[in-house]
Amino acid sequence: MDDTVFAFRPHGSPADRLNGICLPLEVPSVIEYIIIMEFMEFALMSAGALFAIINPLAAIPTFFAMTPSNTEAERLKMARTASVTASGVLILFALTGNRLFGIFGITIAAFQMAGGLILLLVSLDSLRAKRSEVQETEEEKQEGIEKDDISITPLAIPMLSGPGAITTAILLQSKAKTVIQDATLYLLFVLMGFVCYFTFRFSIKKAKKINPIAMNITTRLMGLMLAATAMQFMLDGIKKTFFAAN
Question: What pLDDT is recorded for position 85?
């Protein structure tokens, strides 16, 4: 008989521990480590991608330009409504996006490549500290100036949850492999609503303390992060299309 000594630790239910049921230490440790690392990688990548594409900091100047005659209370109300709406739009498209692709015969790989290209175009404008026309156009901005309430359009749609953000939400949903990752993603959608609201709230309350240079630096950093995310989506699509069989 082999006299090799293995390290064991009790795990499972309390009843299992009482009955002396043990498994090797190395196996669950490795599995747990892999699960935790995959979860952390997905959570950080998703949070970074969502913040980079939504980027509420870059929407602040346009928000003020469209609400020159509104009171502080009115601006706060519009910011709150827009943030809730944006989160709802992302959740809706994340839930239904893959089903829509099935109806139209679009593969996830094709959407990853097309979506990655859209995000790359947005990121190039962010690197120049500009709002992309994918997020908002001059016509939409002018329409917002003429409106009394901009909370739904154009603030929530398309400024916060436009084509780029919706594309990101659908692509991230397609990358979620477990129930925990799904739950984390939808929690991030809700969290991004809070981030948008408190970003607008701070800008409304402390408008004079906002440094334009710091905002431009942040926008450029978000653009760099978004460009890397876009390339990763495109590479994933290419790999699924041309190398899946291998």
Answer: 97
